[in-house]
Each structure stands twice: as C-alpha cells, then as structure tokens.
Amino acid sequence: MRPDTKILSFFKAFGATGVELPAIGQGTWNMPESGPHLKEARRAIRRGIELGMTHLDAAEMYGAGRVETLLGEAIRGIPRDRLFITTKVLPTNASFHGTLAAAERSIARLRCEYLDLYLLHWPGSQPLSETMRALETLVEQGKSRFVGVSNFEASEMIEAASFLRKTPLACNQVLYHLDERGIEHYVLPAARERGIAVVAYTPFGRGSFLRSSARREVLEAVARKHAATPRQVALAFLIRDASVFAIPKAAQVAHVEENAAAGALTLDVDDVAAIDAAFPRGSAGPLATL
Fold first, then answer.
1. Where are the domains of the chain?
2. pTM value?
3. Are 253 and 226 in contact (CB under 8 A)?
4. In this predicted model, what pLDDT tens digit does every residue of 226-262 receive, in sequence order?
C-alpha cells in the first residue's frame, strides 16, 4: 500500500467535543531535539500534515520543552485552523496557578496562540479538583479549546470528569499496543460509555509485537492479504474501535507515510479474530504506563 499525496487518514468524532479528527495523528515523544536528525524530523511532521495527520501531540516534559519548540518550528506557516495541537502539563506543575502558567509557556514554545487540547500528563499530588478547575479556566480564557487527562485509570478518569462544569472531558491518553491491551477491560468501556475519546500513545510498543516469529507471521499474513505492512495492520487493529485514536511517533518521512496509509486499511472479521488470538488482551490489572 504505497502512500501518495492525498489525505489517507480517516476521520471520526473525537469523543463529545463535536470535532472530527484523523484516527491517526502524530506523537513527538523521543523526537530528535537537536543534531543531524532534527531537519528530517521537521520534514516528517510536515509530511504527516500533508497526509491528513493533523492531530499533533507534545508535552512540556518532552525534552524539557525542546520538543514543543521543534513542533512549533515544524508547523510554521501552516494555517492554524488546519491543525489540532495537544500538549500536557506535568503533575508537579499542576496546581491551579501552575497549570495556567505552564499552558502559557507551552503556547509560547509552540507559537500557536492557543491549544486545541491540554492534558494533565498523569495523576499527581496536586488536588485533582484544582487542576481540572485550571484546565476549565483555560477553556474560558480561550487558551485551550478542550481538556483531558493522560495515564488515568477508569475510576480516576471518571473522577476528573466530575470536576468539570462547563466543558466535557475530551480524552484519556493511554499506553495501548498489541502487547498491551489492558485498557480494553475497564478504561476503554468506561470512556466509550461517557463519550470520552481514548488516544493510544506508543501504539507500536517499541516494536515488541514483532519480536515473536509466530505472532509476526499472523500480522504478515493479514498484511499480504491487504497489500499492507505489519505496522499498518497493527495500527488498523487499534483504531478499529470508534472511540480510539493513535498518535505514533515517526521522525522519518518514510515512517510517517507508512503510518498514514494505515488510515486507508479496513480489517475484516477474520483479520480481527486472527490478530485477537495471536495477541490476547490478557487479564485485567493496573493501567500500564511507560
């Protein structure tokens, strides 16, 4: 499945926000922050945008802000309304006033006037009610269109949503890949029931899903059937649920094009059954994180 210049990612409703987003976006965790690979990383982000991968995810933690700066450089000159920009506040900064200040710093590094989505990166020691009040204040101020959380268990996600009065909890961003399907037990059903989008980070699990030859053969068989690649099959499996979006990181143009093409891949019932058998979701347990 060779990508071309048309938009390849398919769009679907992003939780209860009323916004249609590409099922596959672009993550930036572990993106090059300097050195010889920086130019290619910027080119990769822009190529992804050309292919419809306009949901761009960052965090103040990534490179201590340097990745937000990289992303801001990569999107320079692209009309702001074409993009959906997400970033995150560190729990240590997530007091009421600390959250407001962190958002301002991120906006300055991204050079983007406002955020589309601002997340609490993971549960921390600051009172959750104060953090969510700050996130809602940012919406009222026009600094962020939507708010959400990341790395939250189902019960924590429900609690966070309960503190919001004027805006819905847009999403919960969690670790989700073929070797880590634990969110399917509680987090995903709870999110689906409440109109909260689930955003899968590290959807390739650092390549762990390809290390077993027997399981890799299953993906390869499905890939051959669809003239696709195993990585595209893995992505298509994760985003088959209407509530799930994925933000793979790719610092090279070729990898971005491969990821984008997964948006044009539709798995049939037999494909899903074969992958499900090869990569069982396992028993319920605590939410996995990196």
1. 12-211+230-265
2. 0.96
3. no
4. 999 999 999 999 999 999 999 999 999 999 999 999 9
Model confidence at 137: pLDDT above 80? yes
CATH topology of domain 12-211+230-265: TIM Barrel (3.20.20)
Please give the mean pLDDT across all residues of the chain.
Answer: 95
Structure tokens at 286: 């605590």
pLDDT tens readout for residues 84-136: 999 999 999 999 999 999 999 999 999 999 999 999 999 999 999 999 999 99
Give how far Cα 89 sits from Cα of 30, 104, 108, 131, 153, Å.
Answer: 17, 11, 14, 10, 18
